[in-house]
Design a protein that fits this description.
Helix content: 25-40%
CATH superfamily: Phosphoglycerate mutase-like
Protein name: Fructose-2,6-bisphosphatase
Largest sheet: 6 strands, mixed
Strand order of the largest sheet: 3-2-4-1-5-6
Number of strands: 6
Structural class: alpha/beta
Distance between the termini: 31 Å
CATH class: Alpha Beta
Number of domains: 1
Order of helices and strands: EHEHEHEHEE
Mean pLDDT: 88
GO molecular function, one term: phosphatase activity
Number of helices: 4
Pfam family, one: His_Phos_1
Shape: globular
GO cellular component, one term: cytoplasm
Organism: Sanguibacter keddieii (strain ATCC 51767 / DSM 10542 / NCFB 3025 / ST-74)
């Protein structure tokens, strides 16, 4: 059976001075630091011992901008897959917090009653279905080689939870999926046999210790 690796990468830092939950709103692009993160990962993939033949991204601008230098550095055409898009969220376009954010307003509280689905957005099971389908497509396209899929934190984390047969509901503060991080899935045929997490741009993260790859 062919061994294939699919790398799930989260996009870099986004320019968001108003600190809103931008979700699927178009036009949110990478910050200057975000572009540095994207280039750092592009250099990581170009210089390392990788055999990447497919690069595909979510249609959202921040993911496309993150994936562009990766594809360019490898001499590959950048693909787009709608299934890699950010999770839908009721609070999209709003500030999210207790102080001056949406949570102080009672009209929003009914959307918080069920954290297991979750009630405020796209169901976790639906995210798993589309993300796993996108991974399977990439695995077939890159069979015997490697693929990079650029997506968003929650879909990547939920996809990982399902691959590891863990519960889907979770504490968002405990997600292991930092900006520009890479969650690598290794398959023998269509069977997942390994999962590895790296942060090629880890030293660029706010508050980072300077240890890349943590």
């Amino acid at each position: 059976m062919a061994t294939t690796t699919v790398h799930l990468m989260r996009h870099g830092e986004v320019f968001n001075p108003d600190k809103i939950l931008y979700g699927r709103i178009p036009g949110y692009h990478l910050s200057e630091l975000g572009h540095q993160m994207a280039q750092r990962v592009a250099d990581h993939f170009s210089a390392g011992d990788f055999d990447i033949t497919v690069v595909t991204a979510s249609p959202l601008q921040r993911a496309q901008e993150t994936a562009t230098p990766i594809a360019a550095g490898l001499g590959l055409e950048l693909g787009t897959d709608e299934r890699l898009i950010e999770a839908g969220n009721y609070f999209e376009g709003k500030t999210f917090g207790v102080g001056d954010g949406s949570l102080r307003h009672p009209e929003h509280w009914p959307h918080l009653i069920n954290p297991f689905r979750p009630s405020w957005g796209e169901a976790y099971k639906e995210q798993v279905q589309r993300m796993h389908a996108a991974v399977e497509t990439a695995r077939q396209q890159a069979e015997g080689h490697e693929a990079v899929l650029v997506s968003h934190q929650l879909p990547i984390w939920i996809a990982r939870q399902a691959f590891e047969n863990k519960r889907l509901w979770h504490d968002p503060r405990k997600r292991q999926c930092s900006l520009a991080s890479v969650t690598s899935l290794r398959f023998d045929g269509d069977r997942l046999v390994g999962l590895h997490y790296t942060e090629p741009a880890g030293d660029l993260l706010p508050g980072a210790s300077g240890v890349s790859g943590a």
